[in-house]
Structures are given as C-alpha cells and as structure tokens.
Design brief:
This protein is α+β, with helices and mostly antiparallel strands. Helices cover about 40% and strands about 25% of the residues. It contains twelve helices and 15 strands. The relative contact order is 0.17.
Length: about 300
C-alpha cells in the first residue's frame, strides 16, 4: 500500500512544491483548503516516485483519491507527464484501494483530468459529473469594475453601502486584527440562525479556527471592511495557479446593507487584480449559495465529478 500520512502544517512546503507546478484551477489543489478541512475528510497524503497522492473520506463516506500530480504539472514550458507515468500512478492507486478492500474512486476530476486518465488507461474508468461540485470562475476585471447592465444590481448595492457608511475603510488582514475576524465569525454564526450545532457549520468553524491560527504559515491573503473602526466583513484566500486566485471565505454581518457585495469587490480590487481569474469555489448544491454565485455571472464553470472503474 501507499504510505499515507496525516496532513500537518509542517507538510506545506513539500505539498506546495507540487501545487506550484500545477495548472489545475481546482480549489482542491490548495494546501490551505486541504489542511483546514482535513478534520472533515480525514485527509492524508503520500509522495512516491515524484508523485503526490492525496486520499480522503468523501461526504458520501466513500474514500477516494485526488488526481495524482507530479512536479512537472502541465506547464506548457515543461514537457507534459508521460502517459506511462500517469498509468503507473493510476495502477498504484488501483493496487492501494484493492489492498484496503475499497472501491476505486477519484474525486474532484475535471473533464481535462479525465481525458488524461482515459488516455493513460483507455476504457478502464467511467466519469460521472456532479453539478454541486462545479466551481465558479470569474474574470477578475469583471468583479473589480462591475461594468455593464448585468452588474447594475451589484453597483447599486455598493453605491448604497458608500452612502450609508461614509466612514468605511478596507484593511489587510494581519495577525493584529485576526482576533476581530474571529469575533466577527462568531457573530456571523449567531446571525445565521445560531446553527452552530449543524455538522456543516461545526466543520466550517473548525476550518476557520485553523485558518486564522496558522494564517501566516498557510500563506493566506485577506482583507476586511471597517465602519467607524468596527470590523464588519472579511475575505481571504490564496493563489491556486499562476493565473487564478482562490477565495476560500467571505463573511459579513447581515445587518450591514451591501456588506457582502462590498467585501467581494474590494477584495478583488486589492488582492486579485494581478490574476486573470478568481475561483469562488462550489455551491455544494445549496440553493441560496448557488443563487448568490450565479448573480455574479461566472465566466467559466469548472465542472467536476468522480471517476470509478468501468464494470
């Protein structure tokens, strides 16, 4: 079997060397996401023959693997991974799952990834997509400028915010203000219906604590809104590829009219202007979340699904 180990903060440097060479825009290939949510997915990793293998327990309780990536990634300046290399990696996963007595499943697989898998092992696997896993990608210039008729409602929210709160300011998240961010998160939980006993919110609470606790080591980048000195909204994330920035979290007090729209635009302007795309992750099949993400008119939908053995 592959020698999988639990993911710790000390593994960031090693795992990041693989992600730095990847051009996959998935939020799944973000060390901060993997580390902060490992409690929810029992995430482990192994490195063998210059390949990174990540194994975890999906929400359906069926364990599986991410696409095995190598240091060469898919950078156009570097020769692509040979089909033989990927074939060997897939055979390694097949053998590992078999020895564990588990079904073979690869999760968070994009059509681009499946094309590589199918080329490496033709007709061996079937690919099933899931709309709730699709990720929303937006051109950063669109979220910054909000130009055009389709963004008129967003501009209205921002203009109203600026009229209502003339003393607002945008500030970067630093260690000094993280206690205020943590307090805002607790207040947001209370305003969100006090659903802190729901598993999903409990898991998010733990992930948020990890993110702020290891903020600098994770390499997170964030910003916050203040109104008359009070912190009322924040957002943070990290680069996924050379051209894509991933937004991991965005919170605002519901009492602040236009708070979510304002932190979205300001974060894009201050932290994402040098990236072509902003990845705002999945909607998880949550209708309100889907409506909110669709209201920003994504430029790309990164469809994902899972791969299993053909029977």
């Amino acid at each position: 079997m592959l020698d999988f180990e639990p993911v710790t903060i000390n593994d960031k440097e090693l795992i990041q060397t693989f992600f730095d060479k990847s051009v996959f825009r998935n939020c799944d290939f973000s060390f901060s996401n993997i580390f902060c949510w490992k409690h929810a997915y029992d995430t482990t990793f192994a490195v063998e023959n210059d390949r990174l293998y990540i194994r975890f327990q999906a929400k359906n309780k069926k364990p599986g693997y991410l696409f095995p990536i190598c240091h060469c990634g898919l950078d156009p300046q570097i020769p692509p991974p040979s089909p033989d290399g990927l074939t060997q990696a897939l055979e390694r996963i097949l053998r590992d799952a078999t020895l564990r007595g588990e079904e073979v499943r690869l999760y968070a697989i994009t059509p681009e990834m499946f094309a590589l898998i199918d080329a490496a092992m033709p007709d061996k696997f079937v690919y099933t997509t899931d709309r709730s896993w699709s990720e929303y990608l937006y051109r950063s210039e669109n979220l910054i400028s909000l130009v055009g008729k389709k963004y008129q409602p967003k501009r209205n929210h921002i203009n109203k915010f600026k009229r209502s709160y003339p003393d607002w300011e945008y500030v970067p998240i630093t260690r000094a203000i993280i206690p205020e961010c943590e307090d805002l998160y607790r207040r947001w939980c209370a305003q969100d219906g006090n659903n802190t006993h729901e598993n999903s919110l409990l898991e998010e609470h733990i992930a948020t604590e990890k993110a702020f606790s290891e903020y600098e080591k994770l390499g997170l980048i964030g910003g916050a809104l203040r109104i008359k000195g009070e912190l009322v909204a924040y957002s943070y994330g990290q680069p996924l590829t050379a051209d894509t920035f991933g937004v991991h979290a965005e919170k605002s007090l519901y009492a602040i009219d236009g708070g979510f729209t304002m932190i979205n635009q300001q974060f894009a302007e201050h932290n994402c202007a040098n990236y072509l795309y902003i990845n705002r992750e999945e909607d998880l099949g949550i209708e309100s979340l889907r409506k909110a993400k669709e209201s920003y008119h994504p430029d790309l939908m990164l469809n994902k699904g899972f791969v299993s053995l053909r029977t």
